[in-house]
Amino acid sequence: MDNGCKFLFQLARSDNPTVLSLALRTIATVFETMRPYLKLQQELLLSFLVDKLTPPTGSLPSGAGKLGIPHRKNIGASNASASDLAEREQEEGSEAEGKPPSKAGRAGITPARGETRELMLEILGHLSRYPDFMVDVWVNYDCDVNCEDVFERLIDFLSKSIQYVDPQQRGAQVLCLDLLLSFVSHMANRVEQEHPPWPEEYPLVSTILELKSKKLLLLTGASRFNKHPKGGIAFLEEHKLINANQPPDASEAELATYRAQGIASFLKNTPRLDKKLVGEFIAKPDNIEILRAFIGLFDFNEVPIAEAMREMLESFRLPGESQQIERITDTFAAKYFSTKPAEIQTQDAVHVLAFAIIMLNTDQHNPQVRKRMTFDDFKRNLRGVNDKSDFSLEFLQAIYDSIKKKEIIMPEEHVGQLGFDYAWKELLVRSKQTRPLMSCHTSEFDSHMFKLVWRPVVGAITTAFNAPDDDYIAEKIIAGFRDCATLATHFKQPEVFDFIVMSLAHSTGLADALNFPRQSNFPIVEVE
What we know:
By secondary structure, the chain is mostly helical. Helix content is about 60%, strand content about 0%. It has 23 helices and no strands. The chain has helices at about 1-10, 15-35, 40-55, 75-80, 80-95, 115-125, 135-140, 150-160, 170-190, 205-225, 230-240, 250-270, 275-280, 290-295, 305-315, 320-335, 345-365, 375-380, 395-405, 415-430, 445-465, 470-490, 495-510. Helix 22 runs antiparallel to helix 23.
């Protein structure tokens, strides 16, 4: 099944419209029948679709309006929605101090256009057509520390696409509007329905919400680490995300060990960390215990040394200073030699081999190097280092071929086929540790989801409201406003009412002669 999914996903990257269409439709059918067992595959597919469908940066000029039609001057729903949203994001940013934003799209990925874009949107609509789709996405991915915030990325993409100015993409914009309105409609229906008990085999609802809070704290810590490593570590220790399980009667030496292990685990397993800063941080003289704990997290048993080096160097960027590289290779040598690798006689031999592999990787793949190192050169450099003896030709040839055929590079530097291969390898590793997809037939999480996204959702609906093409779309947009108001009532969020009223007043021109406040401060009125 793994190979079948891999080949289908590769075909979904094809430039041939026929191949792409058949591959995407086949993938959609596979998910229709086996979705619970394809949790990570669905995450990869949804991320791929959002990456390809997200409008390019700079495609939302100020004044851009509904479905490609500019706003009337001085009316613009964007005044009531986009401006307030920007102010709100600035406020939240100052409160969270560096909360990492959801990814809108990957740099270097060419957005899909024309028929390809509409086909991908059609497949996204097919995948999301069941009422609980967005809840499943939020619970299974956004509440999982090891997964992307797929729900937030989807809403961000749909909201922006409704404002994307491209007359040739009108059909795609209408599809995005339909998906966004369906999300709101399904949520409004859920809060008025009764649902079966939460399955006992699933984690408790409270546990899932705690995991979401922990994920937010971890990513906030990652953002702070990227600005100031010591500040990021201090933030994590303050919120007890490091050393959380240490015994209360531990000695100072034990506390230091627990601290080093906790920091190492954070650096190795937390996404969105700056890998260059990670490498510099663990290679500092004061952080030698953290470096040992970090490399101690790898399992090098029966792993060839070239692959062990590849695995380690994909988790951080190697620093440029020779003393820092020395500390890393020395620590790696101690860890790797403890696994009793075949043919290597001493720890010093591992150390020299590690240096040789780093040099070979640079030599073989740096475009500025004109004369490449041959196998004979590589063999000559390692003569007599294995406890005053030579390594076998087969052993050295395997190392040389491995590095020559496949460069050791950072994960974010993988592009094209290399990027796909790396992503799939990571998916298979994670799939051994993840639980099946949880089906969430409940409204327990709707208030949390609505609180996260109501501003961009209402803003996008307001933008579409400016000049609908026909009565049917107008009726759906008005129903979307009504559903948002229903949800605001149910979740006791009066600020949503204020935002809707302000948005509609600006959109219809009713606020032209009024001095509406930028931030709502209206009295709360109970409505039967």
